[in-house]
């Protein structure tokens, strides 16, 4: 019954911003590390950002300084604030709890284009 639902994707112009949300249900959200992954056309899925149970964060180099991951355990929700978006950020973004052997959402599409 664990469910992760991503939202907030859409079409945005280069330089714009989006905030993705991932709402969890059916599990104890606060015990998991949470990651945002993305998969762009013709590319492998990559880890974009991760936040631990204790709130420590890390990011792939390509998004450092532009993206911020955060979590609100009281709302069972994780966020990815994306600023200064570039066309190469275009991808389906997936929420993950607990790593590869954990839980996955179905993704939300982010398209950065003029």
Which features does this protein show?
114 residues, mainly beta, seven-stranded mixed beta sheet, four-stranded antiparallel beta sheet, 11 strands, 0% helix, 50% strand, globular
Descriptive report:
The structure is a single chain. This protein is mainly β and 114 residues long. Helices cover 0% and strands 50% of the residues. A hairpin with a 5-residue loop joins strand 5 (46-51) and strand 6. It contains no helices and 11 strands. The N and C termini lie far apart (39 Å).
Instruction: Determine the oligomeric state from the structure.
Output: single chain
Percentage of residues in DSSP E strands: over 45%
Return the string of H and E elements: EEEEEEEEEEE
Structural class: mainly beta
What is the straight-line distance between the termini? 39 Å
Portion of residues in helices? under 10%
Report the uncertain regions.
none
What's the tally of helices? 0
Number of E-type strands? 11
Question: What's the gyration radius in Å?
Answer: 13 Å
How are the elements arranged and paired?
Layout: E1 3-7, E2 10-12, E3 18-25, E4 34-39, E5 46-51, E6 57-59, E7 67-72, E8 77-82, E9 91-97, E10 103-104, E11 108-112
In short:
This protein has 114 residues and is an all-beta fold. Helix content is 0%, strand content 50%. The strands form two sheets. Strands 2, 4, 5, 6, 9, 10 and 11 form a seven-stranded mixed β-sheet that branches. A four-stranded antiparallel β-sheet has the order 1-3-8-7, with no helix packed on it.
